[in-house]
Records
---
Amino acid sequence: MIWVLLLLLQSVDLSWTFSIVSQKPADVINVKQGESFQLMCTADNYYEWCTFSVKERICEYEWKRDPWNITEAVCDDFQGRAEFQGTYNYYECGIKVTSATAEDSGLWKCDMEKYTRGGTRGQGAQDFKTFQVNVEVPTTTTTTTTTTTTTTTTTTTTTTTTTTTTTIITTTTTTTATTTTTTTTT
C-alpha cells in the first residue's frame, strides 16, 4: 500500500507549488530617517510578479519575456526612491528604498507569483513574507532658557566735612636804626 502511494506522489505534477524560501532581513530592520534600506525575497522558482507594500503603498515589479528582464510596473507611491534589487536567474526580488521617511515604518509585505507561460495575473502559485521596518525619526527638543538679571544699585553718600583754619599772623617789625658816626680828627 505504501508503494502505491509513493508511485502516485512521484507521478503528481508539483509545478503549481511555489514558495519564498528566504527573506532578508529575517527579522526587524531599524533605519534612521534619510538613510537607505533593502528588503529581499528569494523564491524556489521563477516568478512573474513581485510586489512590495506597506500601508496601502505599493511597488510592483514584473518579469517580461520581451525585453527579457524585470520591469517596474507600478511604483509611484515611493516618488523615485525605490529601486529593484536582485538577480532574476537566482529567483531574487528585492527593493532598495532611499531617503527613508516616517511613512516607511511598518509591516512590509513581499508578494511573489510564480511565472506561468501564457498565463495571466493571478493564475500562478503565490507566496508572501513580511518584514518589520522601523524608521527612527530624530526627536526635536526645545529648551527655553530664561535669564533674569537683577541689578542692585547701592548709593553711598559720604559727607566729609573738612575744616581748615588758617591763622595768619603778620608781625611787622619796624626797626629804625640811627647810626651816629663821630669822626674825630687829630
---
Amino acid sequence: MASRSAVFALIALVAAWMNSVTGFIGTLPTLRATGKQTSVQAEGADVGVEDWNTFEVYPNWRTMVDVTKDQTRDVVEIFFTLLGQGARCRLLVTPETTVEEILKRGRKELGFDQEWIPDSDFNCYVMEDHGEIKPGAISGPVKNHGLTDFEYEIYAVFEPSTY
C-alpha cells in the first residue's frame, strides 16, 4: 500500500511540475499596449510630424520617381481587371500588343478562359484617373489608347450579345 501512495505522490509532483513548465509552446506572449495608452504616449512626446514637409526634404522627388504620363518604354507593365469579379493581374505588354491579345492572356492568367465563353462576349475599357472608365470599348493596338509607362489599366467587362 505504501508503494501505491508513493507512486500517486510521484505522479502528482510530476503533474504539478509539468503544469509549471512551458514545454514546447514557448513563453506566453507579452501584453500589447492598447490604443489609448499609445495615443497618450504620443501626445506626451515631441515627434515633430507637423514639421515634416516632403517638398522641402525632397524638392526633386518627381525626377527621383520618374513618373510620366507618356509612353517611353518598349515593355510596359499594365493591370488587367475583370470588373465583375474583381480579379486582377499584371501583364507585360509592348505598345504593339493588341487589346484582343491582352484579353486572351488576362482571362487565361485569371482562370476565366472557358472555351464556351467567347472573347467576343467581353468588352475592354481603359481606366482613367481615379478609377473612372473611359467611355467606349477599345480594340486594336494598345498604343492607340493612351498607353503610359505607369498606372495603365484595362477593364474587361462581360457583356454578352445574347442571353
